[in-house]
Every structure is written in structure tokens, then in C-alpha cells.
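Q: I'm writing a short explainer about Phage holin family protein for a general audience and would like to include a description of its predicted shape. Could you first generate the structure from this sequence?
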Amino acid sequence: MRFLLKVIVSAFALWLTTLIVDGVNVVPWAADDTAATIVTYLMVALIFGLVNAVIGTVIRIVAFPLYILTLGLFAFIVNGLLLLLVDWISGLIGFGLEVEGFWWAVFGAFILSLFTWLIGIIVRPSRD
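A: Of course. Here's the predicted structure. Afterward I'll give you a sentence or two in plain language.
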């Protein structure tokens, strides 16, 4: 249940990111179909979650000294590269995320993480 909630939160944050960042777009697999658009956002969020969990974790462990040297600013670069990787993976299946360049990916990853964090605070279940 938590995993599904995280995917939905990521998909909603991705939708908000595509509204704000011009260089980040999501192309649905069927034009003019609301259900196809929602499924596409959910699939891209699932791909992003898997890439972030598997490859992102490995990169963060290997690049730990760079994180320390740059006081965490290297995280922006890593997140942008992970967003470009999701763009490439979704491009292989023919629909999904499209990022126009590296700096759009870095900016888009920053906005996406900001929205994911804010929405996560709102929907987080309380521990009473």
C-alpha cells in the first residue's frame, strides 16, 4: 500500500513538474485519452522509482566522497542524470518522459524532488 502511494505521489509531482518546467514533458501512449495519460504518468513514476532505488543507491554509495567534497551539491547532478536515464528507458518503450537536455534534467529533478517532498508531507500518515 505504501509503495502504491509513493508511486501516485511521484506521478502527481511529475505532472506538476511538467507544468512548470518547459524542458520536461510526458508523452502519453494514446493521444487525447485521459486514462492513457494517467497510466503514462504512473508508469514513468514507477520507472523513476525503480531507477532511483536501484541505480541511484549504487551511484550514491560510490560517489559518497564527491557528495562530501561538494557539500551535497553533487546530488543535483546525480538526480539530473537519473532523470535522463528514465527519459532513455521510457524512450525505448516508445512513450513517456522526454527531457530536452542535461540542465533541463537537473532543474526538472530539483523541482520534482521538491514537489515529491511537499506532497509527501501532506499525505504522510500520522503516527498517533
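A: For your explainer, you could say: The chain has a mean pLDDT of 91.
Q: Perfect, that's easy to follow.
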